[in-house]
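[#protein-structures] MJ: dropping Alpha-1,3-mannosyl-glycoprotein 2-beta-N-acetylglucosaminyltransferase here for a structure pass
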Amino acid sequence: MANVACDYRVLLLVAAVAFFYIQMRLFSTQSKYADRLAAAVQAEDLCTSQTRLLIDQISMQQERLLALEEQRKRREEECRQLRDLVEELETKGLQRLTDKVQVPVAAVVIMACSRADYLDRTIKSVLKYQSPVAMKYPVFVSQDGSHPDVKSKALSYDQLTYMQHLDYEPVQTETPGELTAYYKIARHYKWALDELFYKRNFSRVIILEDDMEIAPDFFDYFEAAAALLDKDKSIMAVSSWNDNGQKQFVHDPYALYRSDFFPGLGWMLARSIWDELSPKWPKAYPCWLKENHKGRQFIRPEVCRTYNFGEHGSSLGQFFKQYLEPIKMNDVQVDWKSMDLSYLMEDTFMKFFANILEKAKSIEGTDVVLKAYNIDGDVRIQYNDHFDFERIARQFGIFEEWKDGIPRTAYKGVVVFRFQTSRRVFLVGPDSFDQLGIEGA
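AK: finished. structure tokens for Alpha-1,3-mannosyl-glycoprotein 2-beta-N-acetylglucosaminyltransferase:
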């Protein structure tokens, strides 16, 4: 019996242990499910909160869409009213809006590199007279290189367009000792002119440098000359410059001449000429016209329409004090629109020029300056060759230099300038009379 009682106690103990174990497992499982349920409830609350936030955002977007739709309707109504207004104005015979679109006479490009102070002075001078005719003459600044002050100065003007030429190819001069600057200038000119003629499709371009000021009638002068340039294909370009335009050698602001010498320093070129020049543009500027004249000539004024103040630059100040600083820039407002420039047509001008040259009194000898001074009317002086021309030119103080066998400003070998008064002095080459068809002079 004692053994039986002992067995029951053991069974009860085992049962108690098993019951306790089962209870512990149940408690652990219930705890896990309770935690999961709490997490699920929390997640549901978060989801509900996010859903409400999303609903609020959608509501706001819908309100914005409604507001934009209302704004669109208002804009459409305004556009409709403007269209009605335009139609009403047109029916009343007022100028159509398309009539206000004006084809430019020429683009104006200021060639710059590293002189920000010079560039600023040039821009101010150009804009002073360009503003009333801005539609006819859009202004560009073309910078060669990346000088930051030049770029900043150009971009500070809203009235012009900035272009930048970056060329890192090393320069190889054709002869030792040449200035590499002229090679860089040539590359820059070709790039800028290609850009304006071919990419921006201008029919004419006026080229200025970053050390120039312009005269009050600069734009009127070029507009009148543009018609001449289009009509007479023997004109290669129109310049605003006269190399012998110093104060003591000019008198008449209305006088224009043809010249076999390229004056530069403010000049206008037509696209038809650039079509010919661009493919064979030389490596170094400014000798680009040497083989391209083909008998064509240039128009130049007696009194300059530009003034060059650039004492420091690529040419290292050559000629500045003697020839550039004393230049007289025109200060008379010439009414070019009323001027008849037909006398500058090739055949007409040759006869016109030959006539005034033939009437000039011939003088010779060693004291030609004194003789010219004592004669009231025009005079002409014969020179025999380059050396003889330099000798006479030096006595008067005009440019002695020749380029490509041509004296500066010469037409048919004749250089004309005023001498202290309205009298003209003609320095006449050995073949000039034959070229002009003058017999027995």
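MJ: nice. The chain is about 45% helix and 15% strand.
AK: one more thing. The longest strand covers residues 107-112.
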